[in-house]
Structure formats: structure tokens, C-alpha cells
User: Fold this.
Amino acid sequence: MTPVLLADITVFVLSVLVGFEVISKVPATLHTPLMSGANAIHGVVVIGVMIVAASLDTTIGYLLLFVAAAFAAANVVGGYVVTDRMLEMFRR
Amino acid sequence: MNTTTHLLYLGTAICFVLGLHLMNSPATARRGNQLSAFGMAVAIVLTVVVLIDDGIITATAAVVLAVGAAAGAGAGLVAARRVKMTAMPQLVSLFNAVGGGAAALIAFADALPESVDQPVSTTLTIFLDVLIGAVTFSGSLIAAGKLAGVVPGRPLTFAGARPLNLLLALTALVAGILYTTGVGGLGTLGLLTGAALVVGVLMTLPIGGADMPVVISLLNACTGTAVAMAGFVIGSTPLIIAGALVGAAGGILTKLMAVAMNRSLLNIIAGGFGTGDEQGSPAVAATGTVRTVTADDAALQLAYAGKVVIVPGYGLAAAQAQHEVVELAQALTSHGVDVSYGIHPVAGRMPGHMNVLLAEANAPYPQLKDLDEINPQFAATDVVLVVGANDVTNPAARRPGNAVSGMPILDVDKARSVIVVKRSLGHGYAGIDNELYTNPRTAMLFGDAKVALTSLVNELKAYVR
Assistant:
């Protein structure tokens, strides 16, 4: 395995552990906003779409790019907005 | 990637972790989400700068990217602004689907230039990304359809579904291995995608409506994992970190939900027995007699109680009666009655959904109690009002040898009296009689949750001014 892959695996495993630690403290009351907020965080996939966009130069590539960009942007924008709407109701 | 870029990406990862951490209290949760959104904005701007700086991206790709993103962002914004709180689970499921779909497309886009010889570590992550992403995409779409009522909520099975699913899963696996080892090319990857998409559909169709909280959690974990795999494919650390965090969140929620429903994950995926919607069979419980109560008597009982606990369930969410129940609670509170809500982890259609519905109807969140908090309080409770909850209140769970044995329940039978608002004596998803209904201390108020609660509020006005 290359050093880069090993480093990536290390980051992945440690992030999973951090995730377990942080999320197990979230109370049941907030589980829906938590899931919705986590949903928004995986909207980070939009960055991945932007990075692969740099290597695409064919029609089929552009087609994939368009769909991926629309999907990812809907995920990230919608995810954060809807989570904020929900959490607003909890502020009392 | 230079040092500054790398450190800024690290900063966004810190925002995600701290944002999730702030979710541990309702007072700070909103700030947490905003911090996470801020981190995301920084990451996006940073990536734009890097793209411009590198200058490799073609003008067409840049335009396609911008137009696609604008279209998606607009659609996401409109959906997020307009959605009703009762429809939240299907929207979350939809966002989950597109996230998984985007992750799978990234792997596809990376695999497109076939001339480049990819190392096995890359082809393997492409395989995993496409597999998980495609299953999540179609699975989440079906789940969203079931939650929205477009696809029937009951388990859908057909003869030969299981062998077909197995065959498809095997096809996907073989295609994946062929692709990973470099034997098969893009065609193999296409075959893998097709098989994975059908597997996602066939896996979600037989799962009943009441099992949806577990399924959404699981699909959420899968999307996280798919995004992390996409991070491996293109060598992007923020994707790996964020994907792993989401995977962990989904994993924890999946486990919590499965425990709360007393089901193993395998049992839920195998599907076929959870129906979700109560079957409305008018059959009377096998043993004992059932006492009924009129709305007038029930209102009188509530008005003269010192402590009332309301137990809302799936039926309340289905009848969209959250405003009525809160109106009732407010009338009682202003009359000096101590009111709280006992909320089972699986009440509603996704984890914590009931809390969101009640918060939307302006129930003060200190009144919302979870299972461990409320159970010791039932012995000191005068009246428990159960609205549309069934199996989670069945005392049979304390005995071994039946369908709900061992399931964590709300100990409502320990209260001095219980009023159950329900349409009929029909069974919950476990398909057994609820012994609570034949308890001498229980009275049934038959009717639709919304109608029954409205008449309770009206009757209450005679006693409370």
C-alpha cells in the first residue's frame, strides 16, 4: 500500500471513531435534526464533483458532471436550510 | 495541493466535528449547524479558487458545473423551504439519495478516461463507491416514495424476489471484482451499477412502513460511507472525514433504532413482516373486557388530574394531529396540570421525528421526555393519554415468549389511569394483542387522533376556563 493510501485509511478510521464519540452524546430529542445535519455534511461531495470536473472533457463526462453537480448542490443547500428550519423551532 | 489549502480543508473538517458536537443540546444545536454550514462554504469557495488557480478545467466543464450546481441548489432550497414537518422524513431520504448518487457519479467520472492505468487501490474504491452509492440512491428513492405514500408502505414482495436479489448481488460482486482486478472495463462498471440499482430497489420494497426509522438511518450511514469512498477515489481528505462522520452518525442511529424496536438489523432487511400502518382489524382482544370512555368523561379526568403524561405514537404523526395534542397540553398546563410528553425512540417515521413535530406545534422542549426520563415518573402520574401508540406500551414486552418480548416500552400501565385514543383495537406492527387495553385501569377513546383530540379540547373548555 502506498503512503497516501495508508494516511487516508488512518484519517478514515479515526474520523469514524470521532464521529461515534461526538454523536453518541446527542439526545433523542435532536435525532431528526442530527440526521438531517449529517445529511447536509455529506453534501461535501460537491467538492468531489468540482475536483473531478477538472479532468472531464467529453460529452458523456459533461453529462455525468451536470447530474452530479445538481445532485450534490441540492444535497448541501437543501440539507443545511432544512436543518436550520427545524432547529429554529427548538430554540425556546 | 499547497500547505494553505490543506490547512484550510482541515479547518472545515474541524467545523464539521464541532458542529456535530454542538448538536448535543437544543440550546446550541442551531449554532452547531451554522458552524458546519460555514465550514462547508469555506471548503466550496476554497475549491473554486483552487480550480481557477490550477486552470486545468475546460471552459465547458466550468459552465456545466456552474449551471448544474445552480439548478440543484435552487431545487434544494425550494424543497427545504416548503417542506412540511410531517414530510421531513421523505425529504431527508431524497437528499440522502442524491448525495449517494453524486458519490457514485464521482467514481464513474474518475473511471472514464480508460487509457489511464489505475492502481488496484483506486479501482477497489471505485467499485465500493459505485456499489454503495448506487444501492443507496435507488434504495433511498424507494424509501422516500414509501414515506410520501407514492409507493405503498406495506411490505411488497413477489415470488422469487429473494433468489433474484441474491443473483443480482452476486452479479454486482463478480462485476466489481472483475473491474477491480482490471479484467473488465467501463462496461463491467456499468453492469455493476445496473445490478446495484436494482438491488437497492428490491431491498427496500419489502420493508414495512414502521421499520422506516431504521432504514433511513441505515441508508444515511451508507451515503456517508459512499462519500468517504469517493474521497479515497479522488484523494480528497475532506470527503473522507465528512463521509466517515456521517457513516458513524448513521451507524449509531441505526443501532439505537433497531434496539428500540427489538429487531435485529438482518431481520429488518429480510423484511416482510412490519406493516407500519395498523391493520384496523375490528377483532376484539382475546381475553378480558375493554372499557370505553366518552370524550366528556376523559376531559373531566384530565382536568382534575395533578400530573398528566401524553404518549404520542405513529398514529398521531399519521393523523397529523400534533397541533391538537399541543393545544390540549397547553389548556391543561394553564389549568395548573403538570403535563409532559413521553416519547419512545421509534415514535414517528424517523429517529426523533415526534420531537420535531411537537416542537413545530410549539411544545416547550423541557416537557419532551425520552424513555429513560419518563419511565420512573409513571407511578406518580394520574392520567396517561396514549395517542396512536401501540406496541411501545404493551406490558407483554416484560415477559418472554412473544413478538414484543424484551422491547423497551413506556411503562404506562404503572400510572393510576390510562386513556388510549385509537381508531380500533387493531394490532400494531408486532401483530399481537396489547394487554394494556384490557387492563382495568385503561379506558379506550375510539376515534381518529385528530378528531378525538379536538373533541377533548372542546369538552375540556367546560371544566377549564
In short: Chain A is about 80% helix and 0% strand. Chain A has a mean pLDDT of 93.
